[in-house]
Specification:
Number of strands: 18
Distance between the termini: 10 Å
Number of helices: 1
Shape: globular
Number of domains: 1
């Protein structure tokens, strides 16, 4: 998600001797033509599992998926599948990674480490709006059913749904935007003070009168361990930590200004090619 350059990441992983992970077989679903179906969207497990989700960005037939979830201590963390392969017309499989880096407040791309693969993700699209996930993380496998999250209605005039990043100079973090109507849902994938992956979420906001600047509240969340047991929605806690403003200077570029716990930053971002 704008998280890092796929090419740089794969090169680093190969240099580190990453081990490939195999997924258990997933039952075949009815064929869904890849070229005619866009799976690019925000996906979730429904209201009973509110608090975690998955964003899929699709460029042609390549999927870039990120899961925003929680570790065994309840901390927000993320894992990413920056690429993979179609094993059928409705099933996409790829390796999962949990990168480390430097704090969002003073990001240093030289400290970014993609790390070796920690598992794998299989996405089986049972229809255009529903999918079965088979996730292996640290040797533990779980199965989830997800649907598109319809957080707002309407078709956007200018669609900013995509992965966004600063560029190679800040390789390792990024912003996932999903737009429905005039509502943007943003997830900022970055790193905490110790360099561990963390995320902040802007689940809504509003455009200005000109329709070019979008502002919303940023939240930090905590929840239950995600990858080897059912998600406990009652454990979710949400705290407002600041704000995000996106000043779109065209269809493919913007300025991202954030305030998190009193720390202000501003940086140019663009859509991330992959």
């Amino acid at each position: 998600m704008t998280l890092f350059s796929l090419r740089n990441m794969l090169a680093s992983v190969l240099a580190a001797g990453a081990v490939a992970f195999a997924l258990p077989a997933i039952a075949e679903a009815p064929a869904v033509p890849k070229a005619e179906t866009s799976y690019q969207d925000l996906w979730w497990g429904g209201a009973s599992e509110n608090g975690w989700g998955m964003s899929i960005t699709q460029h042609e037939n390549r999927l870039f998926a990120a899961l925003y979830i929680y570790d065994r201590f309840g901390n927000a963390t993320w894992v990413v599948m920056p690429g993979g392969e179609w094993t059928s017309s409705a099933q996409y499989v790829g390796a999962l990674y949990s990168p480390t880096g430097s704090p969002y407040s003073a990001y240093d791309a030289s400290r970014f480490q993609p790390n070796a693969a920690i598992g794998a993700l299989g996405i089986n699209f049972t229809d255009p709006d529903t999918a079965q996930l088979r996730i292996t993380i640290y040797g533990e496998t779980s199965v989830r059913v997800v649907t598109r999250q319809k957080f707002a209605a309407g078709e956007p005039v200018n669609n900013y749904t995509d992965l966004w990043w600063v560029g190679a100079s800040q390789n390792g973090w990024g912003l996932s935007l999903t737009q429905r109507g005039s509502t943007l849902f943003g997830v900022w994938f970055t790193y905490d003070a110790g360099g561990a992956p963390t995320w902040f979420v802007m689940p809504g906001g509003a455009f200005d009168a000109a329709g070019t600047t979008y502002s919303g509240t940023l939240y930090a969340t905590r929840g239950s361990l995600w990858w080897n047991r059912p998600f406990d929605g009652a454990s979710l806690s949400v705290s407002a930590v600041g704000s995000m403003t996106l000043d779109f200077q065209g269809p493919d570029s913007a300025r991202m200004a954030t305030v998190v716990n009193g720390q202000s930053q501003s940086r140019p971002i663009v859509r991330q090619p992959f």
